[in-house]
Structures are given as C-alpha cells and as structure tokens.
C-alpha cells in the first residue's frame, strides 16, 4: 500500500543545535524519498502561529502527515537510522517488515518446542505468530 | 514503541524460554504455572515493541534522544 499524499513537516529553530545536526540527514532523505513524500521546513522563529497550531513543544519536531492528517511525530534528535526508519515505516508503508521476521522466528521456535515437548499450547502460540508474520509479509508484498 | 532492539530481543527470548520451561513441564509446580502465565508478557511486549510499564514511567530504551509517537 503506498500513500499518495505524504507531507513531512520539519519544525526547527536557527539556534537549535540538534536541528542543524539533523539537517544533512533530512536533506538526504528528502532526495531519497522525494518522489513519495514532500518535505516542508518550518522555522518556528519565523512562523510561531503556525507552529502553535501544530502543538509543537520543542525542536526539532518532525510531523508526518498523510492526506493532511497527522500520522506520527518525532520529537528531539534521533539517530540517522531511526529517522529514516520513522519516515519509511510511517510514511511509505514499504519498510521491510523486520518485525514479521522476528515473529516468524519466534513462531518457529515455539512450534518446534511444542512439538518436541508435546506441549500443544506452545505449538498453537507458535502457529499464531507464524500466521501473523505470514499475513504481514503478504500485505507488504501487495 | 518504547523498546530498543536489544530490549525487544531479550524479551522475546526470555518469553520463549519461560513458556518452554512452563508448558514443557520442565519446571513444574507453582513456579511452572507462573512461567506458563508470565512467559506471555515479555513475549508479547517484545514482539509489539511497547511496554505499558515503560509508558507509565515515561521511560524508553529506544535511544537517549528523541521519541516517536503515533498520532
């Protein structure tokens, strides 16, 4: 599933050290994901009314909107990896579902354990996790 | 999500171990029963990546700076 109207609002202030530190990464991500989301840089010192309307309590704040509605926000400085994961997972919906892999692994472990120990509850929980992982992977491939 | 990767991995593994010990009758009696029930907690919170106790205490193991909140 690919959302067609994604806006990333980046609220910063000129004196914010963390904002400046994250700017190169944001610029790189804007190029990488520019076809699927629009980046808007908002200077809180220039547009205080707009920032108040967004209920921003600190900078940097990154707000992700889908079809005009806020989906998620990130407050404070985060690592480059976490920032990209945030945009990908909440924005493009195309992030590789690593959670599904973990669930599948846990499911398999429980199924095998349940079978070896003759514990049907373990096997049942494992099957449920494996099924959940399978559904997630199927949805991701659509 | 308020759990870091290592936190989640430890929870999932711990949950599986507890469940195996309990439901596999490796640990029996009251302790085994406790394992059977309690084991689901770290497994579930590890898979979901969110801990209600962390949320109450406004604590996170995701990183020292920054929090992501779903709106």
What's the arrangement of secondary structure elements?
The complex is a heterodimer of chains A (142) and B (71).
Chain A: E1 6-12, H1 17-32, E2 38-43, H2 48-53, E3 61-66, E4 69-75, H3 80-92, H4 98-116, H5 120-141
Parallel strand pairs in A: 1-2
Antiparallel strand pairs in A: 1-3, 3-4
Helix pairs in contact in A: 4-5
Chain B: H1 5-23, H2 29-38, H3 40-48, H4 52-56, E1 67-70
Descriptive notes:
The complex is a heterodimer of chains A (142) and B (71). Chain A has 142 residues and is of the alpha+beta class. Chain A folds into 2 domains: 87 residues, Glutaredoxin (3-Layer(aba) Sandwich), CATH 3.40.30; 44 residues. Chain A contains 5 helices and 4 strands; from the N terminus they run βαβαββααα. A 4-stranded mixed sheet of chain A has the order 2-1-3-4, covered by helices on one side. In chain A, a hairpin with a 2-residue loop joins strand 3 and strand 4. The longest helix of chain A has 22 residues. Chain A is elongated and about 65 Å long. Chain B has 71 residues and is mainly alpha-helical. In chain B, helix 1 packs across helix 2 and helix 1 runs antiparallel to helix 3. The C terminus of chain B is likely disordered. Strand 4 of chain A pairs antiparallel with strand 1 of chain B.
Distance between the ends of chain B: 12 Å
Shape of chain A: elongated
Percent of residues in β-strands of chain B: 5-15%
CATH class label of the largest domain in chain A: Alpha Beta
In short:
The complex is a heterodimer of chains A (142) and B (71). Chain A has helices at 17-32, 48-53, 80-92, 98-116, 120-141, and strands at residues 6-12, 38-43, 61-66, 69-75. With 142 residues, chain A is of the alpha+beta class.
What tags apply to this protein structure?
heterodimer, A: 142 residues, alpha+beta, Glutaredoxin, four-stranded mixed beta sheet, 18% strand, elongated, B: 71 residues, mainly alpha, 4 helices, 61% helix
